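Moderator note: this is an archived Q&A kept for reference. The question asked for a predicted structure of one protein chain; the sequence and the answer are reproduced below.
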Amino acid sequence: MRYIADKMHRLPPDALAFIKYLAAFEQQYNRAENFPVWTTHLFPTTKKRVNEYSRFSRTEWITLFSAHLQRLEQRYRELDEGTTNSLLASYVLECLPREGIAPGLQPDLQAAARNYRRLSKLYHPDLGGEGDFFLQLQWAKEVLTGR
């Protein structure tokens, strides 16, 4: 277990923060105030899985988090696709709500716009960036701003 904890602390800070955020987020929806979906499907319990996580690209993190959020939608009927899309878009644009983890809490839209401009310059395919991630940036901007 020590090996897994050490490897987890070496994950990209934004991914590690979002993993923790998703545990607290699920806890808000679970009457028992625990996080069974997170424990079963997201938290790495084996050396193999934590080693896979250590090699993930940004796109792979987004895919993993998207699948996890879909599982949460299936488990908790009161959780809707709009909320999970907004949450994933907030992760993509690095603008998670800082005030807390209450359901329905919206990210700072000004921060989302600022981060979109910054990240799109870094990841634009014409400038040598990842095309897949750039498409996810565009999707995230549309989800959060509606345009």
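Archived answer notes: The first helix runs from residue 2 to 9.
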